[in-house]
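Why do we care about 3D structure at all? Because function follows from shape, and shape follows, mostly, from sequence. That is the central idea of this module. The next example makes it concrete: a single protein chain, its amino acid sequence, and then its structure expressed as tokens.
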Amino acid sequence: MKPMKEKTDGHAPPIPSVESRLRALAVRLRGGTWLDALEALRAGAGDVFRLEIPGFRAVVAAGPASIRAALVEAVSSLRSRVDPDPVVRLFRTGILVMDGAEHAALRRIAAPFFRPAALERFAPTIVRAADRQIEAWADGAQVEIIEAMRTLALEVLLEALFGIPGPTEAPRLLPLLRAAQAYISPGPWLLHPALSRPGLKGPLQELEQALRDHIRERRACPMGGTLLDAWIEAFGGDEERVRDQMLTMLIAGHDTVAAWLAWTMILLAAHPEVQERARAAVDARLGWGTPSPEALRGLEELEGIGWEALRLYPPIPVLNRRATASCTLEGWTIPAGVRVMVSLYTLHRHPGLWAEPHAFRPERFRGEGMGLRFLPFGAGPHTCIGAPLARLEWKLAVARMLQRAAFEPAFSTPRPRMGATLEPAPGLLVRIRRRW
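And the structure:
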């Protein structure tokens, strides 16, 4: 990696001042996440700055102009394949970690399966998955909502994209996928890439075998009309490439939606007045009827809640890139070889862009164009391909849960945890009051 020049020459991004670094440290000591610490650093150093700690160096893009440059304008120089990060070792040739023509070719295979018209036929699947969770909740029970939403999201993904029965297969795959998520979650490997990952080898091998079994069964008995069949047809006998896409989609496609759903229910539990307005809007639109895309279309009271949950807690709060050639972000020079951290979390809480940036205010999304200050699904060639499924799943599942239950906080303060996604911390419980 080329060393970055010091700030004095006017080309390299600034290093946050000692005062800013002390503020960031204070944030961490008070229980804030390292994402909150990035906010403190941005406040002192601006929308592009350097992180330099022993064993780790990066440039952080934290404002709308620098993030647009990183994701759109400099995309040929900033690649999403950041070796030797564990996500690359796990996904290998998966769509998430490929660039250029290879990435575009993978998107062409998958794109037809994410068109709204293709997805809406799975609305009953989504509602049934939500009903299974609700029916498992006793009135007054305290539920770890992130775990329930993981089950819901994985059941939907398995059936909608792969033609695999969700209720049957999700219980087997969930603990194995948790091991894969732990493998790619931020940790000491950022400073010491060669560190071993105890306890993960066995579950990861079991996950590999489960995926290969599904691929071989489908190759022997094609179903047609699923993304799994499309990959098998596109890659012929190359089982490894099918495995890479399947594993990538399984993790990226269920854990992000689960986090979005879980944060939504936690925020609604913490803001009962917002919850009641949303429930009244859903009841007025649906009565006791089954949620459908048509019935919920244009329901602003509900949609604003979803966007605000994504603003505060984007499931993927930081996108990692590696400069393969020298480029610029807001005039600052980024040499080849440097890691660039694109902080959507900091963008979404930027005080120059948002009034009361840390407050839960769903009404801020009514009638406003968000532009480059709100990018929950990224931007540019790597914009999340699964966004249409995520939006459909979120809307139908949340509407159904509001119809059938009320949610109360069994926690003092929402606390995030940075795993493979930005998820509610363990032990963040919601109390269920069943309506029917």
